[in-house]
Amino acid sequence: NAGVTQTPKFQVLKTGQSMTLQCAQDMNHNSMYWYRQDPGMGLRLIYYSASEGTTDKGEVPNGYNVSRLNKREFSLRLESAAPSQTSVYFCAIQPQTGWGNQPQHFGDGTRLSIL
Amino acid sequence: QKEVEQNSGPLSVPEGAIASLNCTYSDRGSQSFFWYRQYSGKSPELIMSIYSNGDKEDGRFTAQLNKASQYVSLLIRDSQPSDSATYLCAVNSNSNYQLIWGAGTKLIIKP
Asked: What is the pLDDT of residue B97?
């Protein structure tokens, strides 16, 4: 999707391995989000960054860490991957114009399998 | 616990008919409402935003908002097989930068 680039697109890990999912945007938006999507569960917020230099926990932060490296980049790290973290991970961006009153726009996602 | 509820479906609609998708939300302070379309294996794509009570039309899509009853709906006129997808409803949280997401309704348009 134009504006939000996620890497990698697919990844298979073994239990206990670590990895970092990358998200970069070229829209100059302030707010960035990491979601996971499991079948029948909808989107669940892991972490978000309202602006450069700030990060906050979402609904399901356990097992993850994030870094807002600069305004463009927001990474998600799994320190010790577990099978329960098998999911599709989406990064989203949003212009910061108030309390969430603008839509979010998504990257293409990373499909992660933990064996 | 702020919630957004959608019927999971699948909702099956004949081609050319009107598809009606509904969403209810629990946070009375919500002010922004969004409909996203998600094709299988793809990411969510914004199709409609609505902020005021009433109807908002965009091509074959109409979003309807009733804040008093706390529901928002999406109508798709002249449904096409390409409209077959999962439709996600999202509502802003009045207290932070988050959107609250429904689990989605799977729509199937039968030729």
From this structure: 67
